Amino acid sequence: MMTPSWKVFIAIGIAISIRPLVTTLIWLKHAPADDFIGKIPLLSTEDLMTHVKGKNALLIGGTRGVGMGTALALYRAGAHVTIVGRSDHSGAKAIASIQQLSPSTPTSTPGTINFVQGDIGTICTTMKLIEQLSASPKSYDFAVVSAATFPDWTKPLQNDDGLDKSFAIAVVGRFLVYRNAHLFMNRHARIVNVLAAGEKLPIDLFDREIASGERDVTGLFEAMITFAIGNEIMMDGLYTHDDHFASKYYFTMVSTHPGLLKTDLHRGQGFLFDMLETAMVSIAGTTEEEVGVLQSSILVSKQLHLNGLSFVDSFGYGRVHDVKTKSFIEENSSWLWKMLSKLEKSSAKCSAV
């Protein structure tokens, strides 16, 4: 009897490991189309320039991935770009790369670019960043928030607020930034929230205990879905629970999907996952530069719901929540908003530290 080769064992291991991922990808069907938005066309640098040249753009999470790609597109089009990241080293590296990739031409002159050190991983660091941005004489016309970190279910990491760090950045930090955006954004500014919009997410994986920090994550996919759904509930709450936000500040907001990006941001999730992710990205992934053009095109599009919230998928198509997802968001919205409001009130302790 022939003994199975090591290749068979590896194949079995991969099949077992990727089954949750394959199942999740099958669930991630596109939500119904938003016919008002339709398909947002990609803009050339020259076309983008007519919208952003000489204007101020803020990229929170702009040193890598989607943020850096979008910063590159806006900088090339003549915007005055401010990128926010956690370390001076990553900021300097990102600026050098963006400038190197953006030479002046007879028809196109890049804008300016600078770096602000900041982190939205805890309540206090987020409030510190907001204070920095508010103290600047610069007022922003555009903002793209793509800061995020991959959940780690093998050694869950809670922040100083007792929350999983991934959830803290994806939901709590962004919530505080948007609630205080009037302090550093122009009244009719446009804001892109990059996370996981436009998909028909498996909402049954949403876990309130994980969101509130009462339970550590035990699996990658329940964590990712909890953070993605939590973000969409929070975004919806800005317009349904916050009358001050909706009536006084006329921000046009759009939540988008990052797409399958050629980046190293997803590394470190285990050998098999890393190998699978590398294969998938090499086949169907887009570059940071390409996704930056898409996000920038969405940012300035006239097809968005003005002074409201839009959802756009990774292909540039407008989406609306299906009936089941919409009902689920409504059921959980008050609960999450109360939790976020309580956390916001606790930010008073930051100024005393």
TrEMBL record:
MF annotations from Gene Ontology: oxidoreductase activity
Listed InterPro entries: NAD(P)-bd_dom_sf (IPR036291), SDR_fam (IPR002347), Sec_Metab_Biosynth_Oxidored (IPR052228)
UniProt keyword RNA-binding present: no
Pfam families: adh_short
This protein's UniProt keywords: Oxidoreductase
Superkingdom per UniProt: Eukaryota
Protein name (database record): NAD(P)-binding protein
